[in-house]
Amino acid sequence: MTNAAEDAYDALRSAILSGAIGPRERLGEVELSRQFGVSRTPIREALRRLTAEGLVVFQPNRGARVAEWSLADLQEIYEIRARLESYGAALAAKRIDADCLPKLSLLCDQMEERAQRMSSQDLDQIATLNAELHGLVIGAAASPRLTSLLSSVVEVPLIVRAFRLYEPDALARSMAHHRDLVAALRARDAEWASSTMRAHVLAARTVLLDAMVDRPDL
After folding, report:
1. What is the extent of the structural domain holding 132?
2. I need a surface site. Which of 18, 36, 121, 130 has the fewest CB within 10 A?
3. Rounded to two decimals, what is the model's pTM?
4. In degrees, to the nearest 5, what angle opens at C-alpha 57 toward C-alphas 203 and 53?
């Protein structure tokens, strides 16, 4: 892949994850090439990669658009995450480098600090830090195949702004799950790490799906 294509992919992916380009928005090659200052060829390659990752959908005669998810889609996505990430956490408990544990603890500190305030900006920052924590755990599993399988689902919470839907008690439980997960990894207890990650992901699913039922405009 050329540098231009890689840059276009990074820029477009960041715009989708940040919400600068929202769900259902059309992704025209001409407009994007002007916006990012590249030709249509790297834009086309970026869209192809993002389609493979599930962040973009292509519809005949309508072109590319940012993906959106139904309740059924999200139910399935979180079930997949729960199964794969719990397996990843078990692997990580056996394989994690001790140097990674302080980084995970620091991420817990940073998220808990922001959870005390719960402004929209703080909640969006928690989402980013949460994605980093999950990424470190999956990275510690040292399984490229698992990383590849998870690549299209782990960032869905960022796109749907899931942490903005949390009530204080649900957010506190999520933060406690993180602490338990780090403790399990430090103890190198694969079963504990796996069960904690599964509970964490399924609890997040419940928050998101309940909110979407109560607020169908989301």
Report:
1. 71-214
2. 121
3. 0.81
4. 60
Taking the C-alpha atoms of residue 213 and residue 208, their distance in angstroms, rounded to an integer, is: 9
pLDDT at residue 69, rounded to an integer: 80
CA distance 92 to 14: 27
- Taken in order 164, 198, 50, 75, the sign of the CA dihedral is negative
Is residue 186 predicted with pLDDT exceeding 80? yes
Condensed to tens digits (0 to 9), the pLDDT of residues 104-145 reads: 999 999 999 999 999 989 998 998 899 899 999 999 999 999
pLDDT value, residue 158: 66
Rounded to whole angstroms, the Cα distance separating 75 from 82 reads: 11
Give the pLDDT band of residue 54 (cuts 50, 70, 90).
confident
Residues comprising the chain, all counted: 218
- Tell me, yes or no, whether 51 and 149 share the same domain: no
At residue 58, what is the residue type?
Answer: F
Yes or no: say if 108 and 133 are a contact pair by the CB < 8 Å rule: yes
Q: Are 185 and 85 in the same domain? A: yes
CA-wise closest residue to 204 among 163, 176, 169: 163
Name the percent of the chain in helix, strand, coil, to the closest 5. 75, 5, 25
pLDDT at 216: 54
